[in-house]
Specification:
Elements (H helix, E strand, L loop, with lengths): L22 E4 L3 E6 L15 H12 L9 E2 L8 E7 L2 H12 L4 E8 L7 E11 L4 E5 L7 E13 L2 E8 L6 H8 L23 E7 L2
Parallel strand pairs: 4-10
Antiparallel strand pairs: 1-2, 2-4, 3-4, 5-9, 5-10, 6-7, 6-8, 8-9
């Protein structure tokens, strides 16, 4: 008798719903959420439930909107990154915030834990980045190359504990995987980020990069 054949089935990951404690700020136009590492911001080809879907459900339930709620995604964080992410609750707010991002009137600050101490404790990094969409990896170059985008950030060492170092990062540009690849270029890969040089993968599928603050006027 032939052995039965089994097919592997991948079920989507249904992340935990957000609650009031996950909300950092909310008014009639905007809502800021503390994203958990491992959440995706928008639906992708994994089929996993996205953060924007959970926020829509939160708003619809909180304000009794049986037909659902409008929610505009204005920026993103990589899946293994945690921290503040902003959504627009109205189309007018979405348009305004998008314009602020394009004009660089949004100021973001990140905290990163790295294993190696930076040789220079405070400075500016400028590279030209090229992303490989097939492998979802970004490569940094010292000089401009065809298809590259200029990337700039400021960084500062602000803490140390047990051989780990806390770096504050202020990105001037917003390129894919920018902070992750640029810190790696100075031999300071982010803890858990084996895609960019850290030797061990994170067991929780997260890296030690946190979007600490988002400021705008």
């Amino acid at each position: 008798m032939a052995a039965p054949e089994y097919k592997k089935v991948k079920f989507p990951v249904l992340a935990a719903d957000i609650t009031d404690k996950d909300i950092l700020f909310e008014d009639n136009h905007l809502i800021a959420v503390n994203k958990r590492a491992g959440d995706i911001v928008q639906v992708d080809d994994t089929g996993d439930e996205s953060l924007d879907e959970k926020v829509k459900r939160y708003i619809a339930q909180k304000y009794n909107k049986p037909n659902g709620a409008f929610l505009g995604v204005v920026h993103r964080l990589d899946r293994p990154v945690s921290g503040v992410i902003l959504f627009a609750k109205t189309s007018k707010a979405l348009d305004r915030i998008n314009k602020m991002f394009k004009s660089r009137d949004m100021h973001k600050t990140y905290w990163a834990v790295v294993r190696n101490r930076p040789e220079i404790e405070q400075g500016t990094l400028v590279h030209w980045l090229v992303k490989n969409p097939q492998k979802n990896v970004t490569k940094a170059y010292e000089k401009e190359v065809p298809g590259s985008q200029r990337a700039e950030l400021h960084y500062k060492l602000i803490g140390e504990l047990g051989g780990y170092y806390l770096i504050e990062v202020d990105p001037i540009t917003g390129r894919p995987h920018q902070i992750r690849v640029q810190l790696s270029t100075m031999n300071c890969p982010i803890v858990g980020d084996n895609k960019y040089g850290y030797p061990r993968d994170s067991l929780k599928k997260s890296i030690c990069l946190h979007a600490r603050r988002l400021q705008f006027m």
